[in-house]
Amino acid sequence: MPKLSRRSRILLIIGVVVLAGLIIWSSLVGAYVDWLWYGEVGYRGVFTTQLLTRIGLGVGAALFLGAVLLLNLWIAYRTRPVFVPISGPDDPLARYRTLISARPAAFALGIPAAVAVLGGLAAQADWQTLQLFLHSVPFGQTDPEFGHDISFYTFQLPFYRWLLSWAFVAITVAFIGALVTHYIFGGVRLAGRAGQLSAPTRVQLAVLAGLFVLLKAVDYFFDRYDLLLSQRNSLFTGATYTDLNAVMPAKLILLCIAVFCALAFFAAVFLRDLRIPALATVLLVLSSVLVGAVGPALLEQFSVRPNANQREAESIRRNIAATRQAFDIGEDKVEVHDYPGVTNLRPEQVADDAGTIPNIRLLDPSVLSDTFTQLTQQYNFYGFPDKLDVDRYRDAKGELQDYLVALREINTAGLAANQQSWINQHMVYTHGNGFVSAPADRVDSTLEEGRTQGGYPVFSVSDVANDGRGEIPVDQPRSYFGELASTYAIVGGDPGEAPREYDTDSSAYTYTGQGGVPLGNWFNRLVFAAHYTERNILFNQAIGENSKIIYERNPRDRVQKVAPWLKVDGDPYPAVVDGRIKWIVDGYTTLNNYPYSELTELGEATNDTLPGVQRQPNQQINYIRNSVKATVDAYDGNVELYETDDTKPDPVLKAWEGVFPGVVKPSSEISPQLRDHFRYPEDLFKVQRSLLTEYHVDDPSDFYSTQTFWEVPPDPTSGGQGGAADEGNQQPPYYVLAQVEGQQQPTFQLTSALTALRRQNLAAWVSASSDPRDYGKLTVLRLPTNTQTPGPNQVQNQMESTPEVTENRTLFNNPNVNAIFGNLLTLPVKGGLLYVEPIYIQRNEQDSYPQLARVLVSFGGNVGFAETLPKALEQVFGAGAGDATGDGQAQKPPEQKPGGQPQAPGQQPTPELRSAVNDIQSALEQVRTAQQSGDLGNLGGALQRLEGAVGRFEQLQGNGG
Length: 961
Fold this sequence. Notes:
- By secondary structure, the protein is α+β, with helices and mostly antiparallel strands.
- Strands 3, 27, 28, 29, 30 and 31 form a six-stranded mixed beta sheet that branches. Strands 19, 20, 21, 24, 25 and 26 form a six-stranded mixed beta sheet that branches.
- Helix 1 runs antiparallel to helix 2.
- The longest helix has 36 residues, at 6-41.
- It is globular.
- The N and C termini lie far apart (82 Å).
């Protein structure tokens, strides 16, 4: 062993102590900061339960692992040979024997302690497995093979497997430790052809090997239950015909053989002949190959595959039933209607539609974030998320109306370079200001100073400036918690101290809410200064006794910390409830061990083209429930969790309620005002629609053939520019206010189109209701298979190839302007399917923002393309079809100037304006001629002349471009 000087040893010891101290200090600081945060939100029991469970589980596993290893090391050392044969003067083991013999206690305790610590750290991560086992509740349903309650597979079997795995680890580590000890002290000698084992060595290793094989027998017993999650057949999850008739009997045979082999190892304790355990090992290996692999493979090849549709029928039937139950898409939840898919409607039929047509949404929440930002941002330190949200409120007439909504949040990342001081980022710009909304079915067409301001949302802002009295009034328009708040804020102040938080241009503000952890004592200031490595927290004189620090400000993160057993939806949304701004967050309970239910990749099923949405982890699940609705107050940060439905309790949630009593409130405490803003969650809907593409099929033979399967279409407007869709990007579902088959009035719902398998034609349309009266009800409109109804991509191609659209591309896609195709909505109307798509234009310059320019409508192969929805509908159906669109869309547009440009009432075109309009028309004709002839030189010159003519017209019009 290398020898170190006294000074080197001291420095090494000091370095190790300092490193260990830093690690321990960092862990303690992080734990204390979490402890304070849980105390702030009132859920400290969640923190202590997790901490104590982790500690208890880690300590228990560490003691077990360390004790087993210590016992075997002690036995190996005590039974070492008295006289160790010396192999020569250069015996490499002599120095190790001397070192261990000099300090036997240090090695006997140190090695097991190190292994125990590592094992404990690994074991504590499985605290959820232990808690679910201790608080398991029955499902009230049994599996079709063994007749056990489903809770055995979801709550109990994972814990038994966990115990078995650690037993394997303990025996393996003990065997290695004993073998190495016996080798060092001469109990194992490699001299000769076969080597030699001392009697104590043979006894100890044989017992350990026998215990290992006995554990393998237990493992074979549990393997039978795991077959109910077999993926032998790629078409479905569950025990196949081969699993039931070959693999399962093989597991029992192997279990018996393993017990026999374990007895053979134990026999070696009394017999000196090692051939018996050797033969037992060979028998175990050969039987696992022949019985466990070859036999099932022969049955699969020669009996099952030639008759698979018949052999697998019962397994498929079980898989269908379990999947529908586990994913909540059974007959009690899903209503399937045969939908005619008519292609001809009279104008008066469309005009008579009072449920869908008046509520067609024109504003795309994934496109208009920049428009909200530029027109309502107010200052650079405010901002909006990349994707806005859609919710519904009652308008002034009491009618249900869908709105685009967003909070004007604090966004310290938007601060200019000269604003980015620590004080500005953490003590001045601390909160957002305002709830911004816009009716989703209309745009502004008012006149201001002789200019037409058409194509923009009709905004209403409830902020401090108007005391929250916008169209949707709020009592407290300030928001300290939101999706853009990525850093901490220090708020509050002592009585009489001047406010320092920016509020308006003429006033500052001091936070008076319940959120935040007190910074009044020096210990807390020291802890947070260390946690954030920021000395200003310690030395800033503005931090007083009443100051608080607000952190963990993202509503999704707050809910995840309060309920660590939940998977949280990727798109929280703000809602005004009783005058308070609340973030509503959906929480899911999931499992991956529900017998016979289809294993589904969560990340893949929920992936689509929506921007700004937190993606789900890519892990397999085969059970999901939206069991929890959570709210986070945007001002106080209070977190409240509610059970979604008491009438249909979720066993997984009930188990977690046993672990964390009182954390989730019963659904009876949900106020009607809050329930009115519950949306059917997107991630759950995406998973369910993915499964409905297959599990709408009842007959096992049809399921096996897959000929009646559907699929989620790719997004035809992926990237916002139209064109061919990316096959890897699923079309997102869309929230709409519509009335569909079986509904008596318009309801707010989440909808999606489904196409035939590997085809582009529409096969079905599915929606999930968000109405409190039938919340969660899934409606499937199944189209006939003997007709070809165009799907989203076919309709998109048809729309873009329409002559009117191709002609207008010259204006839209000129060097200064981009056309952005919005969401393609599929809406059932009077037995047919109506497609509606807004088109936005955006200038190619910094800080530009989209403006609604045209509306595309398609029905039965006919395409409408116009400035307004009523006009587009009339182009498709005939005069009068747009009468049902409501005042917001059917209002009379301004008078038109020559060349199609809007003109203010009473304003007459001057000769200069007429000349500019004529120049535009002439340049347009030259562009068309050049395009038809393919002359790129003439086309470039024509486009330059067109740009110049448009510039002169805009200058004369006085609208600045």
